[in-house]
C-alpha cells in the first residue's frame, strides 16, 4: 500500500504539473503515455514490443497524438491517405513474416492505434482549448474511481460484472455516480465561469463521464481477462500499467466528442 501511495502521488504531481503548463510539454507527456499504453496492448496479445509491426503502430500513435498541436486544416486532407497506408503496411507484414504476423494481428494493431491514439489526441486538443474543461473531466474520472472503491468496500453487496471484474459492485457504481455529480457542481461553483451552456448540460456531461468512465474500466478488464493478465504492465509499481490508469479517459473522451460536449 505504501508503494502504491508514493507512486500515485509522484505520478499525479507530474501529470498535473504538465497539464497545468499545457502546450508542448503536456503534448509530449500525453504522447508518451499513449505510446506506452499501445505497447501494453500489443504485449498483452503476445507481440514483441520491439517488433517492426508494433513499432510502426507506435509511430502512428505518436503522430495521431502530436497532430493535435496543429490546425485540422493543415493535416486534414492527408488523414485518409495515412490511414490507408497504415492498413496496407500492417497487412504487408503478413507476407514479410510468412504469416507469423497474421491478419488477425494486423487488425488488432490497427484498432489499437486508434483506440489509444484518438483519446490522447483529444486530451491534448481539449487542454489547448480549456484547462478548466480538461480538469473537470479528469477530476470527475478520479472522483468516480475513488467513489466506486470506497463506497463499494463499505456498502457493496451485489456484483456489477462478476465475470469481468469480480470486485466491482452495483452499490459502488451508484455511489461513484453520486460522488461525481457532487464533484461536478462543486467544481463549477469554484471556477465560477460556466463550462457548459446550462446546468442540464453540466449534469449530462457529469453523468456521461462517470457512467462511461466505469464502462471504460470494464472494457479494459474484459481485454485483460481475455488475454489472462492481471495488469496491463508494470511501469507504475503498485498500480500496474499506464493503460490501467487511463482506461476510463480512453473511453470517455471519444464519447464526449461524438456527443458534442467537446470539439
From TrEMBL:
The chain crosses the membrane at residues 12-42, 54-72, 78-95, 107-124, 130-151, 172-192, 198-219. It catalyses: a 1,2-diacyl-sn-glycero-3-phosphate + CTP + H(+) = a CDP-1,2-diacyl-sn-glycerol + diphosphate. Keywords: Cell membrane, Lipid biosynthesis, Lipid metabolism, Membrane, Nucleotidyltransferase, Phospholipid biosynthesis, Phospholipid metabolism, Transferase, Transmembrane, Transmembrane helix. Pfam families: CTP_transf_1. Pathway: Lipid metabolism; Phospholipid metabolism; CDP-diacylglycerol biosynthesis; CDP-diacylglycerol from sn-glycerol 3-phosphate: step 3/3. GO terms for molecular function: nucleotidyltransferase activity. It comes from the Bacteria. It is a multi-pass membrane protein. It is an enzyme of class 2 (transferase). Its EC number is 2.7.7.41. It is found in: Cell membrane. Belongs to the CDS family. This is Phosphatidate cytidylyltransferase. It comes from Sporolactobacillus mangiferae. The lineage of its organism: Bacteria, Bacillati, Bacillota, Bacilli, Bacillales.
Amino acid at each position: 500500500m505504501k508503494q502504491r501511495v508514493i507512486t500515485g502521488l509522484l505520478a499525479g504531481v507530474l501529470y498535473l504539473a504538465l497539464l497545468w503548463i499545457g502546450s508542448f510539454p503536456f503534448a509530449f507527456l500525453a504522447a508518451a503515455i499513449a505510446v506506452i499504453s499501445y505497447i501494453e496492448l500489443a504485449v498483452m496479445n503476445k507481440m514483441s514490443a520491439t517488433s517492426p509491426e508494433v513499432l510502426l503502430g507506435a509511430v502512428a500513435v505518436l503522430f495521431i497524438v502530436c497532430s493535435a498541436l496543429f490546425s485540422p486544416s493543415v493535416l486534414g486532407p492527408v488523414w485518409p491517405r495515412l490511414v490507408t497506408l497504415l492498413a496496407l503496411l500492417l497487412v504487408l507484414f503478413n507476407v514479410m513474416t510468412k504469416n507469423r504476423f497474421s491478419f488477425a494481428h494486423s487488425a488488432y494493431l490497427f484498432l489499437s492505434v486508434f483506440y489509444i491514439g484518438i483519446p490522447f489526441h483529444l486530451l491534448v486538443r481539449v487542454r489547448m482549448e480549456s484547462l478548466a474543461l480538461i480538469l473537470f473531466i479528469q477530476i470527475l474520472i478520479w472522483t468516480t474511481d475513488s467513489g466506486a472503491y470506497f463506497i463499494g468496500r463499505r456498502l457493496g453487496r451485489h456484483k456489477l460484472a462478476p465475470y469481468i471484474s469480480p470486485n466491482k459492485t452495483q452499490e459502488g457504481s451508484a455511489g461513484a455516480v453520486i460522488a461525481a455529480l457532487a464533484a461536478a457542481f462543486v467544481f463549477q461553483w469554484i471556477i465560477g465561469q460556466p463550462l457548459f451552456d446550462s446546468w442540464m448540460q453540466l449534469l449530462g456531461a457529469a453523468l456521461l463521464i462517470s457512467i462511461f468512465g466505469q464502462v471504460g474500466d470494464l472494457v479494459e478488464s474484459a481485454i485483460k481477462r481475455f488475454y489472462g493478465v492481471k495488469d496491463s504492465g508494470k511501469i507504475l509499481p503498485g498500480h500496474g500499467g499506464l493503460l490501467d490508469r487511463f482506461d476510463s479517459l480512453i473511453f470517455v473522451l471519444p464519447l464526449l466528442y461524438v456527443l458534442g460536449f467537446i470539439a
